[in-house]
Amino acid sequence: MVATDARYRTKVFLDTYITDANLTDDAAGALTNTVMYAYPPYPKELIFSDNYSGFSVVFFVDKPTSKARYSSAKSIYAYEESIPVHVHAVDKTGVTAELLLWKAETELRTILQTYPDVTNLRILPTVKDHTVREGSTVFYGFTLTFSYVRNITT
Amino acid sequence: MTVLIDSYSETNRNTAGIISAIHPSGSTWSAIGQALTITKDYILHSMKFYMQKLGSPTGGLKVRIYATSGTVGTSALPSGSALCESETFDSSTLTGSYVLYTINFVGINRILLKKDTSYAFSLEGYSATLSAGNYPQIGADSSSSTHSGNWFEYTTGAWAARATWDLCFYLYGFNIDRIFTDILGMFSRKYNMSADVTLQSLVLGSQNATTGWHALTYTTTSTIEMPIYPKGTNFSIFPMGVYTRYDYTGYTLSSVSLYDKVTDAASRTYRVLSITDWWQGDKFAYNVVELEKLTEFDD
């Protein structure tokens, strides 16, 4: 994937800066998390199942929508990318999904504050609930949409 | 398909009991039998007895089944009224030498023989004419008999047990744990269903460095019983779908998980999309499995 791919860059950003130790269970015990593109070609349930990967919280990076910014000379000088990140957790023994999601949202806020992009502008305009039910499993979650203004030279 | 529930071989015979009167008789032998304990749940089907005739009996015989009192193996006796009775066996069909004869139970007389429950299986005089010189002899063992049950008889107006005697008999029934599997087997044959499939269990492999998605790898684990209804099947007591037998009574335990693959005898490969437990009573169940047929574009 090329370096200009906003989706990939967002995944790398999250992979790099999310601190695993901040995403813990109800008793502050260690949990595992992962960042991946949204809509993997297999049921989401397997990602959380202890019979498979057993992750407790997953950051799904969705496809961005892009909008060009034009200069007064009517040439494109930057793109504004909106990249939804769906964060999901399930209730497990010792893990209350809603509590874990708040830790995840706090972690995202923290890394945006701690690691502002000095070259481009990465901001956090919206956070919306994104709880879904698939079969008998409830995937609690929220969608955080990064707005990411990237100069064409970077 | 019937199975042998219990037996005591006719090769052990060294003596005989007789039935020379209609049961119950206050003066002579009118019933003989064996008390025993059933070790699994069965539906009663039939019994065999090792018999010959003396004289020319013409009377009918029936097997009646009772609950027991006393200790099975030494002193168990029939108790209460009969739970069921067999079809009538015509004693005139006996010959002058010992042969195994089958007596059947039909209709509502095919009762459930419950696991860990004791029953008394009593062969009784049912209709004329049985008499002192014309009666059936029923093979038994009075010498170092080894069956876990015990013999009993009705002689002079009362039941009596003999701890050292055993009846030579065969008891047949339907294994209740197998009934649904047997029915499914019938549908398999009728509709030429694919019963044995190769199961490939999903393993989530390493995550792709770019997407984060797991590699889907499959391990071929076993051949399992999973009948698949073909197109055109127009009737079944089972809902359309796929079944894998799941029980905990000592038989094959086959299980599938979400997103596993199965390949049938015609090399068609399917992916498991959902699994629903479908229970029959509290002892055994099938997993109804929703499948999608894979195409060349699938993994």
Structure description:
The complex is a heterodimer of chains A (154) and B (299). Chain A is α+β, with helices and mostly antiparallel strands and 154 residues long. Chain A is built from three helices and seven strands, in the order H-E-H-E-E-E-H-E-E-E. Chain A has a single domain (6-151), classed as Alpha-Beta Plaits (2-Layer Sandwich), CATH 3.30.70. In chain A, strands 1, 2, 3, 4, 5, 6 and 7 form a seven-stranded mixed beta sheet that branches. The radius of gyration of chain A is 17 Å and the shape is elongated. The mean pLDDT of chain A is 89. Chain B has 299 residues and is mostly beta strands. Chain B folds into two domains: 2-175, Jelly Rolls, CATH 2.60.120; 191-293, Thrombin, subunit H. Helices cover 4% and strands 52% of the residues of chain B. Chain B starts with a strand and ends in a 6-residue tail after the last strand. The model of chain B is unreliable at 248-253 (pLDDT under 50). Classes of the chains: A alpha+beta (154), B mainly beta (299). The A-B interface holds A 1, 8, 11, 34-37, 40-43, 45-47, 51-53, 61, 135 and B 202-204, 207, 210-214, 216, 257-259, 274, 299.
